[in-house]
Every structure is written in C-alpha cells, then in structure tokens.
Amino acid sequence: MIISVTKAENIKDYFIMLNFDNGTKGIVDLRETIFNDKRKIFEPLRSIEYLKKFTLGSWTLNWGNKLDLSPEYLYKLAMVKK
After folding, report:
1. Contact, 78 vs 26, CB < 8 A?
2. Average pLDDT in the 33-45 region?
3. Model-level pTM greater than 0.90?
4. Which site from 20, 49, 55, 65 is most exposed, i.e. has the minimal number of CB atoms within 10 Å?
C-alpha cells in the first residue's frame, strides 16, 4: 500500500496525531521506536523538544538530522491502537 502523511501534530510527549491521504487518522506513540532502536540517528529524538521539531515533507515526517519514518510504518503504528 502506498500512503502519505498529510497532517501531523504532536499532542503529548512521544504521541503524534497523524492524518493520512486515504482519510484515516490515528495517534502514534513513537517512544518504543525511538528508545528500542539503538542506531545513533534516533538518539536526538529521545529529547521531547527535538522530537517536536519535525516537519511534514511531501509524504512523511522529517527531522533535522535527516531521519524520516516511512508513512507505511507510521500507518501500521496508528492502526494497531484502534
């Protein structure tokens, strides 16, 4: 499935509300992703202030350290909670 994030808003700590181009909305909790992945690129996101500094690119969330998360992964996270 090809999907894009169309809107994103940090709502609290590691929780981000996402809208997808298929009309679906959901909340993702990125805490596990950020703390369980030991790659250095995730280290800055452990700071809530840094995490909140994402931008919305043409299809997904982006951070200043060049990290982006695939919209398919974010969709899967959002749908697990439903």
Report:
1. yes
2. 97
3. yes
4. 49
